[in-house]
Amino acid sequence: MPADDQTLNNPAFIHPSALMYGRVTVDEGASLWPNVVVRAEMHEVRIGRFTNIQDFVMIHVGWHTPTLVGDYCSITHHCTLHGCTIGDNCLIGIGATVMDGCVIGDNCIVAGHAFLKEGTVIPPNSIVMGAPAKVVRARDSFVANRINALMYHHNALAYARGDHRAWTGPAAEAAFEDAKARAEADAASRPTATDR
After folding, report:
1. What is the pLDDT of residues 160-187, one digit of tens each?
2. Which is nearest to 145 in space by CA: 98, 105, 115, 99?
3. pLDDT-based confidence at 9, cuts 50/70/90?
4. Cα-based torsion angle of the residue sequence 40, 86, 134, 153 in order, rounded to the nearest 10 degrees
5. CATH topology for 7-138?
């Protein structure tokens, strides 16, 4: 993996087959899984804290736009992110494509195989489906998406030490209960609309 202009801020796990080129930042607790490809020839790619980029994800910058992924996101298997911005606590479903100039607000779920055409803007707390994708309902998915990201962090730490069975048994159950308690506490401490 060439050095390029990469900044690794204590990620939890980067699989040896993950490839990064150009200006790429991977923040604390994040993980890149097998066969991830990240290319940033012109702009930058930033991957937020405790975000997981799962197997076979392709991340590329747009002609005019960087690709920015927030904190506590799960970018699931075979997704393509291309010159877009993903907010915090989002889950992008298997095989989804998010194109140039798209902006996805915090706490969203994008369904598997959805296609978000260029310039699509999704408000926070949305569930998005279809090709072309559209908002099908409003729902704050903060807790569920954060639990998923925290469990992936637990798994990433296990993979980093060579344990490939961390999602089974009493330790996994305890990790899930801890992730759930943390996510619910974080949700409860968020500022309300009147506090902003």
Report:
1. 999 999 989 999 999 999 999 999 999 9
2. 105
3. very high
4. 110
5. UDP N-Acetylglucosamine Acyltransferase; domain 1 (2.160.10)
